[in-house]
Write a structure and sequence with these properties.
The protein has helices at about 1-15, 20-30, 35-50, 60-70, 75-85, 90-105, 110-120. It is mainly alpha-helical.
Length: about 130
């Protein structure tokens, strides 16, 4: 999500300076597609049309997108990253380094952390 927001900011700064905020919001919204983004966008556009929602600048709008879709719970995102980490074709040394990095960012400690490590390895340790 951060990449999407960064690209939008760059484009808005380069190509849409002086354009009404509503048009900037519509442009960004046109690139939000799929799943819950479609529903969120529809609700947003309805609220804007009915003047139930107002943004003073496009930065506020982008902040709302980040809050809604940007993995607002950073700890949860870090835990999921740790859970998905697998050795696969990596060397054990590379896997250990990646695991250490992911473990620092998660809140796992001791036994649960060891279990995550064992599950991610190609060879199971008993």
């Amino acid at each position: 999500m951060a990449g999407f927001i960064t690209v939008c900011k760059l484009y808005l700064q380069m190509r849409m300076r002086g354009i009404l905020i509503e048009e900037q919001i519509q442009w960004v919204s046109s690139y939000m597609q799929g799943g819950s983004a479609d529903v969120w966008k529809e609700n947003l556009l309805e609220d804007l049309e009915e003047e139930l929602l107002e943004y003073e600048n496009v930065g506020e709008f982008l902040a709302d997108i980040r809050k809604e879709f940007g993995g607002g719970d950073k700890e949860l995102v870090k835990v999921v990253k740790l859970r998905k980490l697998e050795q696969e074709s990596k060397t054990m040394e590379k896997f250990v380094q990646e695991f250490r990095r992911a473990a620092k960012e998660s809140e796992y400690e001791e036994r649960p952390l060891v279990e995550k490590f064992k599950r991610g390895m190609n060879v199971i340790i008993h």
